[in-house]
Amino acid sequence: MLVVITVGAGGAVLDESALTGEARPAGHGPGEVVRSGTLNPGGPFDPRATTSAADSTYAGIVRLVSEAERSQAPFVRLADRYAMWFLPLTLAVAGVAWAAGGAERAVAVLVVATPCPLILAAPVALVSGLSAAARRGVVVKSGGVLERLARCTTLVLDKTGTLTAGQPAVTDVVPAGPLPPQEILTLAASLDQVSGHVLAAAIVRAAAGRGGPLVLPEAVEEVPGQGIAGTVRGRPVRVGRAAWAGVTGDPQWVTKVRRRARLDGALTVFVAADGRSVGAVVLQDRIRPDARQTIRAIRHGGVTRIVLATGDRAEAAGPVGALTGVDEVLAGLTPEGKLDVVRREQRQAPVIMTGDGINDAPALALADVGIAMGARGSTASSEAADAVLTVDQLGRLGDVAALARRTRRIALQSVLAGMGMSLTAMAVAAAGLLPAVWGALLQKAIDVAVILNALRALRPPAPDVRVTPAYIALTRRFRTEHQAIRADIDQLRATADALGSPGAMTRVRRAYDMLTGEVWPHEAAEEAELYPSLNRLLGGADPTAPMSRAHAEIAYQIARLGRLIDDIGDRAPDEDDIADLRGVLYGLHAILRLHTVQEDETYLSLGDTTDTVAV
Question: pTM value?
Answer without folding.
Answer: 0.69
